[in-house]
Specification:
heterotrimer, A alpha/beta (about 325), B mainly alpha (about 325), C mainly alpha (about 350), A: about 325 residues, alpha/beta, Rossmann fold, 6-stranded parallel sheet, 6-stranded mixed sheet, 12 helices, 12 strands, about 15% strand, elongated, B: about 325 residues, mainly alpha, two-stranded antiparallel ribbon, 14 helices
Chain lengths: ~325, ~325, ~350
Amino acid sequence: MRTRTGLGGLIAIAALTLTAGCAAETATTTDTNAATADDTVAVAEGGEVCYITAAESHPYVTPANEAIDEAAAAAGLTVIRLSQEFDVQTGTDQMNTCIGRGSDAIILWPLDPQAYIPGLIAAKEAGIPTIIINSPMDDEALELVASFTGPDVYEEGQLAADSLNEALGGEGSVVIIAGQAGNGTTIGRTDGFTDRLTELGSNIEVLQVVNADFDQQKALVASRDLITRFGDEINGVYANDDTMARGFIDAWKEAGLDTAALPPIVGINGQADAFESIKAGEMLSTILQSPYEDGKLALETVARLIAGETVEKRLPIKLTVINSSNVESEMPAF
Amino acid sequence: MTEAMPPVPVPVASRVLAQSGLTRVRGWIGLPAGVVLVLIVGSILSDKFLSVSNLTNVLISMSIVGLIVVGMTFVFISRGLADLSVPATVGLGGILVLGLQPSLGSLVAGIVGVLAAAVAGFINGGLIGWARVNPVIATLAVGTIVLGVAQAFVGGVIVYGTDTATQDFINSRILGGVPVIVLIFLSVAALGHILLSRTTIGRYTYAVGSNPAASEASAVPVKFTRAFAFLLTGALGGFAGVILGLSLQTARPTLGIGYEFDAITAVVVGGVSLLGGVGSIPRAMSGLLFVQLLTNIMVLQGVPSPVQGIAKGAMIAGAVALDVYLRRRGGTQ
Amino acid sequence: MNGALVTDLGFALVRYRVLVILAVTFSVASIWVPGFFSAGTLSLSLDRAATMGLLAVGLTVVLLAGQLDLSGGAILAVAGITAIGLQESMGQIPAAFVGVMVGVLAGGLNAFLVVVLRINSLVATLASMLFIRAVGHYITDSRPVSGIDPFFGLTVSRPIEGTITGRSLLFLVAIVVLHFWLTRTVSGRNMFAVGSNFVSATASGVRSRAYLAGSFVFSGAMAGIAGVIQSLSVNTGSPVFGESIVLTAIAAVVIGGTRLEGGRASAGGTLGGVLTLGALTTAMEFQNIPAYIQQIAAGLILLLLILLDQLVSRRNSRDVGLRSLVRRMKALSRPHQEKERKHISHEN
């Protein structure tokens, strides 16, 4: 019986594949669009954008996703959103899906500076304009895309270094809670920080760098370990984003330590809870970047691309340093 | 299912009872001796190790996994192999408690979370106890579905909680510095121990695990007992998720990932055999303590957490190989 | 009488359940995805599942032998890291070869733990999974490694002459080889024997322990191949690759009719299971259906298939009429009364 099922299975598959090969071409209209996308015929209204996002549920990514949906509705475009769930492999597979769909444009949120390059090459050959959102990729990748929109993560690291260095007067030891290992944002924000400290001639020493994948829970576990290991040697904390900064604060409270004794903490994003923490004196500062602007800019850029315009290679969004001096007057990003 | 070889043919009773005196003593003191050894090594390697704050931290980091370990012990002893739906039940508990918090309040939402996870455990139990589906694949399938449903319930986004009062309470310390979360864990562990060692269902669990055929011939409700282990693990997973969700006040679907393997590690290192019939809650907890202390030593030495798996993998292999060796020795007498 | 027709239909549906579920999934997919049956989209479906499919081929043999192997994802990651990391010093092809060897070595480790140390395979491969994954993190310092030439890997993930991709072809070849081995070789038949009854297989002269060891080495090798192919296609080796692929592959193998208890397996079944999951993912992504709904669908398919599998008794009973199905469900709960079945086949 199992031989028969097996053989039956093979025959069925073979039959299906042969039928498919011989079947009349049933390509969707978007296939022909993709084929002609490299001449200047404008395909403005009703175009399809294939958006490969980092995750469905994340404090920063979710509002960015929503912003893209809103901007698309305003521009008359449809968005197909595929989520990598922070898995690079899934993202590279999803690039193939986008190309196979023959979408009019692709927005990619890269979780790795290099891994998507083969996919980008394929997209370019298929004539589908692609932009990168939020997280940088290596130079060879940037040549393959129409634009990179989003914050300058290296600059964010530098601003964080300025803030922490000033608060500590150039002396002391700090820990760095970094994001997902190998992620372009992580690399940018961390290198920006450490390079700037060297540039300033600071005597601040980095005790340890841990990776917490931009996740509060993982940051809690990692911070617990840091507090266990270094205790009061920690004079300052630099977290690659506010969610992880929150994880550190949680760990501190969990250890039964006094929040008044918290070392200065710098985060990035400009979340509402970070604002509250700055007001309460738990956090030192955060670098504000708006996920709404991030998403909106990306979508507007591809809308221009679909309409046949050329766009700038680098389109940044605004960054603002928030600390106790301006936390009352500024609005949180989300 | 995954028996590498057929079990060494021994008369039924002797496997559980008649180990040689030396083997029994070795089995009894082996693990506590190991814990003491780790404590000594740890204090040599780092002066922070034996401090109250450090050891309290170890207890705190044990607490959530410890809840799962209680359930997993029942699963192992009843020869239910393993419950891989733990990430789903934990995630379900966390998502529900925070998702329903605005409308029902933390307490009721928490109860709903635990009950929902218990339903998942019940489904597992039904499939495994009555429909005789392999536990690994059954819990895998149910877990996948349950986690998907939990996410669908909140539309796939992160759930935020707003109850800082409960959060502060769970993260606080009472009775002169004992963390609440540790108290919760210890109470559940104590209840689990009583359930397993002193009640009828506990005896049935051991019977079903050590000799299913004999149990069926006698009055032991085999199907129900096997199902019960999974129902319990499901409910405990949900409870762990609820506590986690309340203490963090955010819940992502990935909340529970990894807990099932941590629990299995603890149980196995504690000498509770996958083949069923032997073990106890205190032994599983000793295993958990041992693993956590070792992890703590590695942390204090600066070993990055993803690399700690080298030690954990070696520990599991070592512990089980030793257990197999001792069982074979004990059995041939 | 109509009852006979319904019974025969029910019988056919359950017996060929893998084909049925595959056909259903394909039908739904073709409704959702206009042009699903175009060569391009089918190729996409297949390619999406190819890496997982390579693992599934290895796992089919392991499950046939009555064992489990959870370490495939970790092996995949480390093999990929090796294949990419050694490119500079060795060149791409030799590095890829070494990567596959890493998989074989890891399989050997598993074989040692299970066959020599006699550790249960669930626990043993859990331990090796933790160990190997940690080694991957250690040698890369948790950062991904990049290869020297992104174009090299494109051969693997690009459609050949507009049909299927290189890795899909590799997967299909593996399926054919597996099928041939399972059905036409002595060693294949021996593996069935080892999986159904270890003791009697040994008694009849089969070197069962060697077969068990071989199944793990094979599974490790397939994971190694999958890892090398995957990393080449993205020109990156990373310690976090393959984190959830093993459970999906196990699901595909079980959907295909292979049982965890051992003794039953089919290459065609595994192909069907892999294609079903691949088509499901592609179709749902095309429809912009969120990942968690995909999970529910995949889980339900798995559940349905394992329940149907329980209904089709272990002894190839022909009778799948409704009344006898119910009777057999009850009989499953009372194993000593299975001899009742003999009377059932005459009922309708």
